[in-house]
Amino acid sequence: MFAVLAIDPGSTSTKVGVFFKGRLLKETIDYDRGIIDSFDEILDQKETRVKSVFSFLENKGLGSLKFDAVVARGGLLKPMEGGVYIVDTVMLEDLESGRYGVHAANLGGIIAHELSTKFSCPAFIVDPPTIDEMDKVAKLTGFKELVRESKFHALNQRAVARKAAELLKKNYKELNLIVVHMGGGVSLGVHKKGKVVDVNNALDGDGPYAVERTGSLPVGSLIRLIQEGKYLPDELLSIFSKKGGVYSYLGITDMKRIEEMIKKGDNYAKLVVDGFVYQVAKEIGALSCVVDGKVDGIVFTGGLAYSDYVVDRLKKKVSFIAPNFVFPGEFEIETLVDGALRVLKGFEEAKKYD
């Protein structure tokens, strides 16, 4: 029986999973925002996060457990195929240097490598957010110097796509699915026979607006804001990823509070959330054309999938396209463990980051 330690770093938390004796123990380690903000660089957080993982294991009486693998959420790496990858020195160099971008997820492979050294076992990552299986035609933008990039919630999207396939009683690689991850950012991917052939860049501002992210914006108007001196480029980049979307309009990100505002008759809050639903639904309709309308299912996931207000309105708009499936929250720890076990059991060969 294999034992696997799974690590999923977020901006202010580290999700940990321990699979042993056929069962999975999960916990989220939350960090004080002030402590996280006190670090100049994301890499400076490594020691704090590693210590918190060891404390978790000790507190659960698992300090002496021998692991067969440590697996982590992948960070911002080069465009690559989906799958399970061995954490090696080349990958570590790219994660540590931020060559392809800086994000808390970069700590995943770095921490996995350090822990695997401690436990004398291999370290893996699974389906990093930069997996790129997009069709060539989907990468065109209309401006030769810019290419559409694949950066999305790959790990959770793949997990819920497989769950939907189970409910449809078919193999994931036989289906055409549209998967919608709704959280601080929103990513919508077309899963065509097991490959994500089109998806919006959820990290850099593409697609519908979300709770914290602006999504696509009118280019000309944006350039004029810079020309008029209202914003500097670095300010806008921060707004795009942290202070856009619903937050830009309402100044809060708590969807439960916003729904309460709507129930109390706040028409402006209703307009903003309805605008979010409108943009997501419109994007789903557009993506259905990628597979010529032959969609086997539409899958909703992420934190906002807990919202009946959002999900009910989305279903009303897109149920005519295909059956709808809802898997609220995230299943990243389960997917990480499953990926490691596939390799350990010999069902899949771990890929090399080259």
Mean pLDDT across all amino acids: 95
Structural class: alpha/beta
User: Given this structure, which CATH class of the largest domain is correct?
Assistant: Alpha Beta
Number of domains: 2
Q: What is the spatial order of strands in the main beta sheet?
A: 3-2-1-4-6-5
Which fold does the CATH topology of the largest domain refer to?
Nucleotidyltransferase, domain 5
CATH architecture of the largest domain: 2-Layer Sandwich
Major sheet size, sense and barrel closure: 6 strands, mixed
Distance between the first and last residues' Cα: 31 Å
The H-and-E topology, N to C, reads as EEEHHEEHHEHEEEHHHHHEHEH
User: Which spans have pLDDT < 50 for at least 5 consecutive residues?
Assistant: none
Name of the CATH superfamily of the largest domain = ATPase, nucleotide binding domain
Shape label: globular
Number of β-strand runs: 11
Helix share bin: 25-40%
- Determine Rg (CA atoms, Å): 20 Å
Q: If you had to describe this structure to a student in words, what would you say it looks like?
A:
With 354 residues, this protein is an alpha/beta fold. It contains twelve helices and eleven strands. Strand 1 and strand 2 form a beta hairpin. The mean pLDDT is 95.
Key descriptive features of the protein:
single chain, 354 residues, alpha/beta, Nucleotidyltransferase, domain 5, five-stranded mixed β-sheet, 11 strands, globular
List the helices and strands and how they pair.
Blueprint: E1 4-9, E2 13-20, E3 23-30, H1 33-37, H2 46-59, E4 69-73, E5 84-86, H3 89-97, H4 106-119, E6 123-126, H5 154-168, E7 176-182, E8 186-192, E9 195-199, H6 219-227, H7 233-243, H8 245-250, H9 255-263, H10 267-288, E10 297-302, H11 308-318, E11 324-328, H12 332-344
Parallel strand pairs: 1-4, 4-6, 7-10, 10-11
Antiparallel strand pairs: 1-2, 2-3, 5-6, 7-8, 8-9
Helix pairs in contact: 3-4, 5-12, 9-10, 10-11
